[in-house]
């Protein structure tokens, strides 16, 4: 606040210039932004045998990016985004099978267009609602599509899917190889283009207006914003991108089933985004990559109970990184910079000094942490007991022991979280 | 008779059986300085919401510059020059002060329809936003997120947003509410110094402010217009003193 400002009376002219400068430069390219792309290219050379998995990762990142535009920026909560992913996925599959339209790149455009149009129409209806109502409508729409597909299993292949799809070589030249090398480059290039589009939108005045709707919709109405139109536009764009991701999914797998419409698919992409950080552009990258990697590792570890690991990851994310991994990174950097002269925006140094009144803060945050820790710990515990009990069904005594161990694990998480949440929140308030 | 900047005719609004607005008619000429006063629960904020279009009237009509806007959406009325401030701050709390203002200018000019050009590329918008901030002495805080400002400063942002709309009619809902009196004079000075062409309707409880600022006063009681007149007429109206000024003491 004003009182903690290190330079109380900077000349107005310079404050003005500084403020203008910030907005003028905000959308400029920064070097760390190259990092995820360099890593992706490096992976191409370092793990040539894992390109199929890499493809899936890139596709999910694109899917998460589409969600970020509406969830992270416009604040539209949806658990039915798989609907548009599925539309895209089936567009290229059916175009190839029924119409003989097997050219991949035009297929992407077709998929994006169709998903976008459906997104606009559906969005026009459902975006009059907010909150839980909207959430239920998004779920319902995806479920309806899936069930319609199931009714016409003769066309969609139902849950058995449509195997053995064939697509033309890329640009008429590049054949698909068994290891997915061509595909990886293909998907990466499309992702880069889509990412560029999303980045433009996010930094445009329109993107700003979306954040305005997220931050305060009443105020947006009062300053004359056509809120509904803005939301529908964003929803359609997001749907189109999800459709492109779905199309890439089908093209790179040469296979699609109705499971693309699964609620789980919608939920998974949201989890990825939250894990990475919503409204952050690169949150989709980080969350998508980390989630897919861990899911893969966990499922190798235990094909039956890999979800336990993912669940634990989520619990940890909720406890320690509520603004996602990107937010966590910022917090850590902030802590390390605590003693230094100040951060980039010219804020005052934020050295943490303990004051007696912080005890009260600590108490409240501890309670906060304890409640969340308990709930989360309980959730983990249930899964943990389920996991253990399959091994020890014949030995109830041992099952009991494991339950206790599970509870202890939960309690330990609880304690650590208590310490962590109290510390960070006290520091944030002390600054 | 020239067309009023804003006129409401026989406005009614019920919430179920509760009549919060009864047969209210009101006229704001260009450059009007009118205060809307009345005891708590008189329906002042409801009336503002009916005028802006946030609420639909049960019956009656709202006119801007001789045009019936009763069925016009709130956003369209806003773009035609109807701005308001809220009794309780309605700001983009996570965004910086400067972004709050740029957002408003963008909506006013239709800039926000642009999906491609970077928001920072249009220097004229930023400069205008900074001019508004300068007039309210907010430039120092331009890059701070709104939620980090003290409440009194946030009140100023609330007004800055309304001004950035370049309104022809401005509805101020207790602009100085919740602001310590040491700072409230700044807000009221700003209000007093506004462009004389803007028609202003202000809801205010501080009678000093009302009598100093307003050229006409409407007293609202139980959803209906109780009386209307110049500050002197209202001050000397025995009935108004009984229903309203009496409870407030004798600031005037």
Structural overview:
The complex is a heterodimer of chains A (431) and B (252). Chain A has two domains: 32-287, ABC transporter involved in vitamin B12 uptake, BtuC; 352-430, no CATH class. In chain A, 73% of the residues lie in helices and 0% in strands. Chain A has helices at residues 12-25, 35-46, 51-73, 82-99, 104-126, 131-151, 153-156, 181-203, 205-215, 217-222, 227-253, 263-276, 283-301, 306-320, 324-337, 358-391, 396-430. Chain B is of the alpha/beta class. Chain B has helices at 44-52, 74-79, 97-109, 123-135, 151-164, 181-192, 207-213, 231-235, 238-248; strands spanning 6-15, 18-28, 33-37, 59-64, 67-68, 82-85, 169-173, 199-203, 216-221, 224-229. In chain B, 50% of the residues are buried. Chains A and B meet through helix 1, helix 8, helix 9, helix 10 and helix 11 of A and helix 2, helix 3 and helix 4 of B.
Can you give me a brief rundown of this structure?
The complex is a heterodimer of chains A (431) and B (252). By secondary structure, chain A is mainly α.
SSE order of chain B: EEEHEEHEHHHEHEHEEHH
* Whole-number tally of structural domains of chain B: 2
Structural class of chain A: mainly alpha
* CATH architecture call of the largest domain in chain B: 3-Layer(aba) Sandwich
In the CATH hierarchy, the architecture of the largest domain in chain A is Orthogonal Bundle
Question: Which geometry of chain B do the CA atoms define?
Answer: globular
Mean pLDDT of chain B: 90
* Sheet with the most strands, sense and barrel status of chain A: none
CA distance, first residue to last residue of chain B: 33 Å
Per CATH, what is the topology of the largest domain in chain B? Rossmann fold
Biggest chain pair interface: A-B, 42 and 55 residues
Share of residues in helices of chain B: 25-40%
Query: Over the alpha carbons, how many angstroms does the gyration radius of chain B reach?
Result: 18 Å
Number of strands of chain B: 10
Number of E-type strands of chain A: 0
Major sheet description of chain B:
6 strands, mixed
H-E order of chain A:
HHHHHHHHHHHHHHHHH
Number of helices of chain A: 17
Q: Indicate the low-confidence ranges of chain B by residue numbers.
A: none
Q: What would you call the structural class of chain B? A: alpha/beta
